């Protein structure tokens, strides 16, 4: 990373073109809806797009791409299929070629930290000819409150094959703020930002924080990888998808993801939000109420 400017106040977009429209893909997702809300707060026109939204966008239906791009000069790019799949780079290359033809000048990609399978997509973004920024966050804190782990916590037990492995979970609100900075300020062009929360935590510690915030009896139970994959298949995932999720969690078990990244502080001029603050806020909003 080479950004050496004073960038704690750049979200206002004083060096960017905030009067132009930003296309927010995955506009109903954990980061997309937060990005759209922040852009609206700052008076930046934003168009949210998703498979079921008012602006329809489907990576598997290229006829939806052009209408979504009309009048757009920047894109928050979220690939809602598997970012590490073999077809992802081709989709991204084709979409960004069309985006450039339609007058898009910049793209901010949501990638993932320490995920080699996503690198071909990142390479496609770099080769697009657009101003680009790549965001590589750790696992979201909101995975506990909005979808992935939520049903298990509502039932009282989270069963994972992560042992005592640790992860510096990041609040999706921090990702969104960094994304808005990158979408509205040219000084972030050409940067790849690794994003993490302020401290590594085990899943047991995370569940304990949520239990404390909710007053509920919640448990984290370590299980074998075989048991975990069987649980996922029983819940409706294919064997292949269960293997992908299991593989991602294995990196946490092995401890390779426990290190911190400083890019939230570098971009926003403050430390990232703590998991405890996230748990208290989500609990107050009724995230784990049953």
Automatic annotation (TrEMBL):
<protein>
    <submittedName>
        <fullName>NAD(P)H-binding protein</fullName>
    </submittedName>
</protein>
<dbReference type="InterPro" id="IPR036291">
    <property type="entry name" value="NAD(P)-bd_dom_sf"/>
</dbReference>
<dbReference type="InterPro" id="IPR051604">
    <property type="entry name" value="Ergot_Alk_Oxidoreductase"/>
</dbReference>
